[in-house]
Amino acid sequence: MDIHSETYRRIYDLPDDYVFTKLERRKAKTINFGLVYGMTPIGLARGLGITIEEATTFMNLYFKRMPNIARWMDKQKLLVKRDGYVVSVFGRKRRIPNGFSDRWGDIGRAERQAMNSPIQSCAADYTYVGLIRLRRAILETKLEGKIVHTVHDCVVTDTPRTEVDEMVGLIKTAFETPVKAMPIDMKVDVEINKRWGEQNESRLEEILTNVGLKLAA
Questions:
Q1: Spatial distance between the Cα atoms of 66 and 10, rounded to a whole number of angstroms
Q2: Which end of the chain is more exposed for a tag (fewer CB within 10 A), N or C?
């Protein structure tokens, strides 16, 4: 499932076959990412271009439909004030000494880090595991294709045309095979183009043009 569309569907109790608009999905995506950064109704309203009343209603419905998220967030806030650190599902510890502070600003910052760190750390570590798997598979199959870099949770490879189908298979195996720390099924989307600047909603081509640069053909 698409987690952002599923979030919106649960908030408004929509049927499984409901067709989402881009704005509806963006609303859910904004709140999914924003809450662990301490987003307020004002911030949500500004980000989506809606009224504060609409944003407040949306956030209230979010926690009403998915109460376990609120309980998890409260737990993380308590842990950082008790222990001064939090731990991700991969066992990575993030020390947050401000959890022991008696200053309101420090405590608020520590609470936001306590909610955000395990999620961001988990996503990063899962990507690292996939990268290691993919690198090993490329070496074992003796492909000429190479891993170039990552963009958030995207992996960019430079692959000869003759190897595209095989590389796609290696990528999906590397990133869709569950890991012990997080034994859930993942879905990987693989997209193919001549260069990154033409892919997805990237504005690389536009940005380079504006500063007077041009990519090689």
A1: 8
A2: C
Query: Residue 198 class from Cβ within 10 Å (0-12 exposed, 13-18 middle, 19+ buried)?
Result: exposed
Distance CA 126, CA 131 (A): 9
Q: State yes or no: pLDDT of 189 exceeds 80.
A: yes
Tokens of 197: 């600047």
Q: Domain span at residue 129?
A: 124-210
CATH classification of the domain holding 172:
3.30.70.370
Give SS3 for 84: coil
pLDDT tens, 44-103? 888 888 899 988 998 898 899 989 999 999 999 999 999 999 999 999 999 999 999 999
Does residue 12 lie within any of the structural domains? yes
Number of domains in the chain: 2
Classify each residue of 114-135 as buried b or exposed e, where b means 16 or more C-beta atoms within 10 Å of its C-beta.
bbbbbeebbebbbbebbeebbe
Domain endpoint, select from 65, 98, 113:
65
**Residues 130, 206 within the same domain:** yes
| DSSP-assigned letter for residue 147 | E
pLDDT at 169 over 80: yes
Angle of helix 22-34 relative to helix 41-48, nearest 10 degrees? Answer: 150
